[in-house]
Amino acid sequence: MASVPQPDFNVEFNARLAAIVGAQNVLTAKDDVAPYYTDWRHVYSGKGIAVVRPGSTQEVSAVVGLCASEGTAIVPQAGNTGLVGGSIPTGRRKEIVLSVGRLNRILDLDALNDTMTVQAGCILQNLQQAADDAGRLFPLSLAAEGSCQIGGNLSTNAGGVGVLRFGNARDLVLGLEVVLPDGRIWNGLKALRKDNTGYDLKHLFMGAEGTLGIITAAVLKLFPKPSASATAWIAVESPRRAVELLASLRGLMGDRLTAFELISRVCLDAVIKCKPSIADPLRGRHPWYVLAELTDGGKQEDLAARAEAALVECTERGILIDVALAQSEGQSRALWAIRETIPEAQFTNVKHDVSVPVSSIPRMIDEGLAELAKAFPGCVGLIFGHIGDGNLHYNIAMPDEAGTQALMVKKKEVNEIVYAVVGKLGGSISAEHGVGQQKREAIKARKSAVEMELMQRVKDALDPQGIMNPGKVL
Q1: How far is CA 245 from CA 241, 281, 382, 425, in A?
Q2: Cross-strand pairs, 393
Q3: Directed axis angle between helix 239-253 and helix 361-375, to 10°?
Q4: Model pLDDT for residues 195-221, shown as the tens digit of each residue
Q5: Is the separation of the CB atoms in 383 and 342 below 8 Å?
Q6: What are the residues facing 350 on neighbouring strands?
Q7: Model's pTM, two decimal places?
Q8: Of the candidates 108, 172, 85, the residue with the CA atom closest to the CA atom of residue 470
Q9: Which positions of the chain have pLDDT values less than 70?
Q10: Number of C-alpha atoms within 13 angstroms, CB side, residue 324?
């Protein structure tokens, strides 16, 4: 007797997904799914049953409910600009990629309350522009802002250049809407700055990298739009001087100091080599630089005068060597182009996203490089980052491409050396990029047993089936 053919699970399951979101929003063709199954650096890749693109919170809820009933895992994905493989399927079990890209509407902008309610698939740069058009500021700013989506920014608790004054992504959110792992919708879209009625649940989901639920909408904080700005490119002799400069400028300028970026000469050389159209802002060569941004209300000439006076005072104190103060918006953009080109200019190296107390930045740089030189003689640090909040992008390469490729093979050894120094200084091995797949095992050795147990208990309570972004964080 001939056996009865069994239905193909994927075909049947995809048909049920299509009934929810429409057949055109269930992607299975190789070329269609490729951008979702591989990260932009082509470091992580995996396979799934399908890529599903819901168009509403209700559709997200229905998709998650279906997956929960079938025990199918879900990999939430926003702009797929991450660096740690957090939004890429592992391919180790049945899983779909759920893209929030179609959830891209601004639902409300309340200029009097300084809030904006948005869906998770909104591109960050579009939100910045919408706030600007309303005479307001949404201060989250990072290199990928032209393509990253706010749902991913919140799920990874993104940082960027404005953390010094405005805080991380979690500090810019008043409320969330989240689809839970069983498909239920938690509507926490409150536009309140004070709500002392128990646990602040939104903080569970920000920084959780989609392992506890899917953020579908958020209420974001807005701020008064600055009417004046000043940008300075400053040469200093060492990271210690940069930290002293930070303290001095904060004392002289207060909260007007919005961004404070440390850039090594090695990084500047890499930028100029990558884009010869970019010019060195100063005549002399110096070992370290700071890119500082100041913003304020009032007149442009008043802030410029205050900034110039503060920089002169710091020069007289011997804290800085030289400075170029932008005289126009175009010159300011040119200075920021240097900072924004650094990731592109040094694409291949062993990357680290670490944080230490601001006062420990000089030790992190000096002691880390000293330990690395013992193990890998001749190695080079391509170091830059948000020194104002203690976050360094601590990237390591060799002087030539062949040497760097050989070093990449030993990246775990490089990681361990850097992480050991970070640990000694009371720092974190992930400042703003998240854990994802890349640092999942590394955090186990660096968090206490109590921390790991508490995290696992939260995960088990909210996602008992373990279907939300498996293989990430925990």
Answers
A1: 6, 19, 21, 21
A2: 353, 384
A3: 160
A4: 999 999 999 999 999 999 999 999 999
A5: no
A6: 396
A7: 0.93
A8: 85
A9: 1-7
A10: 16
